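User: I'm preparing a small set of examples for a lab meeting where we compare how different chains pack in three dimensions. I only have the primary sequence for this one, and I'd like the structure in token form so I can line it up with the others. Please keep the answer compact; I'll paste it straight into my notes.
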Amino acid sequence: MSPNAAPAQQDKQSLHYIIRSGLAGGIAGCVAKSVVAPLDRVKILFQASNPHYQKYAGTWSGAFRVGSDIYKETGIRGLFQGHSATLLRIFPYAAIKFMTYDQIHYWLMPTRERETNARRFLAGALSGTTSVYFTYPLDVIRVRMAFHTGAPGDPPVRPSFIGAARQIYTEMATSSSSTPEILESKKHWLNRFPVLKFYRGFTVTIVGMVPYAGVSFLSWGFLRSTLLPPSQAGHKPPTPVADLAIGALSGALAQTASYPFEVIRRRMQVGGITRPDRWLGWGETARAIWNSRGWRGFYVGLSIGYLKVVPMTAVSFTVWQWGKRLLNV
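Assistant: Understood. Below is the structure token output for the 329-residue chain.
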């Protein structure tokens, strides 16, 4: 039996099991995101090249200076700016991801003997991409909320969830010029179908999710089966410390494998602010990053990414396992 599996007598495809599995995953995601919310805000500012804080990018000390500046200007609430949208997104996202993983794991690897690294990777990649399909617009809104900063000296303004959504929906070319280029942009399909503005960066997110979720669950399953193998007579549940350690390493490996995709995604998600008149594509975004900072531009904020993802993944997996034991999943 898989080290993640619940007792064999349970019907893992029953609605009752699926709901409990999703509940455990959703709670795990919310707890983990709340732990690292201030770091997440700083990382988004770096990745999206916010002009007010770009001078601090690339160093550990710079990350702490940004956090300190935000705290001085807007207080503790500034460090959690956009967190309401994060929680609205992360509960269904984590619930769907972990619930889907449990189901795919059961289909692909019903017994311990059927477990392979390829199947672990496939189960993780499919669960991650499935969750993105259902929750991506919420991620775009929360990134916009986190990206927003006022000019130095101006009174702090906290963007609301509804306000950020309205801005995304209504944004278009800001120039008042009547040039043919501007007039044509007003007829652009992005303005005719404004709901698509909530999917800026969607394709790169899906592609980046494959290595991120795949490597994360692959590492989690492999390390647990290798370091915590069940005995012939069964085994005691792993301790929270073991879950934290394995989750942390899984998060570090997944972050390294997928980080360039995440940087491109963040740039595209705030494209409505930097280039509201049109859709920024993969190639154009990647070239802009390369022309600006070379290959290092694809790893800007990686150090703070580790500082955020390692504890977040560790807490997420640990709370997920705790929730499954509590709910008898």
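A couple of notes for your slides: Confidence is low (pLDDT under 50) at residues 173-180. The radius of gyration is 21 Å.

User: Perfect, thanks.
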